[in-house]
UniProtKB/TrEMBL annotation:
Residues 64-411 form the Aminotransferase class I/classII large domain. Belongs to the class-I pyridoxal-phosphate-dependent aminotransferase family. Homodimer. Its EC number is 2.6.1.2. This is Alanine aminotransferase. It comes from Mycolicibacter algericus (Mycobacterium algericum). The keyword Transferase applies. The gene is aspC.
Amino acid sequence: MDSYGTIVDVTAHQLPHQMPWPAVGSQLRQRTFAQSTKLQDVLYEIRGPIHAQAARMEAEGHRILKLNIGNPAPFGFEAPDVIMRDMIQALPHAQGYSDSQGILPARRAVVTRYELVEGFPRFDVDDVYLGNGVSELISMVLQALLDNGDQVLIPAPDYPLWTASTSLAGGTPVHYLCDETQGWQPDIADMESKITERTKALVVINPNNPTGAVYGREVLSQIAELARKHQLLLLADEIYDKILYDDAEHTNMATLAPDLLCLTFNGLSKAYRVAGYRAGWVAITGPKEHATSFLEGINLLANMRLCPNVPAQHAIQVALGGHQSIDDLVLPGGRLLEQRDVAWSKLNEIPGVSCVKPSGALYAFPRLDPEVYPIQDDEQLVLDLLLQEKILVTQGTGFNWPAPDHLRIVTLPWARDLSGAIERLGNFLVGYRL
């Protein structure tokens, strides 16, 4: 209606470049909202379409055995009582925002943790950022680091958040192979062959998710030398560094590269069984004078999210300073070790299936021999397993492995349940054999 009271068709006077969406006559067509193109290369199959199907089946009343995600609590792994008590006592003091980097006692505890590691480069509380789990910190670091087209070397297979976060930040994930015939150790020659002038960072996941490999010191030294030669940033994901089996020894990447900028990621989710608390950290070591702008970017993003969740920050100090109860679970007689052994032995009993013995972490990554199982679509395979056996696992290609011949299985269920599940997997696979 104009100033004289006449009804006016607004769309007839709207210039085309002013229209937010197409119009037909005097009627506005309903605007549609599409997914951002930034997400076109972003995948996270651990909680992808198969997981969504499992949720629908649960809603219908089916009981699903979830072997798709390393979530200790549902399998009876409870947090140490001292962590929960300390967190509850801290709640009255955790109602407001904290410093954007995290509360000082927790950051001091992180510094102290690594002071006890021989050869770990010295750093202080200003070099520590706490996060809502390691996942948030990975995303923040890559967003601060990458320009469009910058490349990041990531293992194959990998924890897919690294690939997804690289793509989301505008970077290009480039996967170097880990060699199954060598216990899933990184292939150094393949790694070096994929370094270009656009390569900016190198990711090391050790102990590895999904393979359970623990990298040898010599291999890590070679990786450090490559980073030194090509002036690459080292990103060390070490969330499973306390979950080690048999005689496996973990070497922190930063100890072999004190002269290089290295970001070490870790947290409470796995070793302390509090995945839901979302408590992680990143420690920055090495020369920082040539990375001022990058580090300012991390600080900016930390400020933008205000702070990590404050109650969980209070769990860090007591967790790192108290009894390390994870040792009771991985030593002989420990539940995690027993379950690793059961998973490994039962998988290798299935005809045409082989599995490298995991030396750490919470997973097995068995291979299905293509000459026995001519699988073309491993996503369909895991969907069929879900529908027929009510067992949820993740396909190997979901971890950026290039062939549809692997699965990742979580080793967290009780040994008897794990044994039964793998027997059912073996019976299911009979239908896929040549």
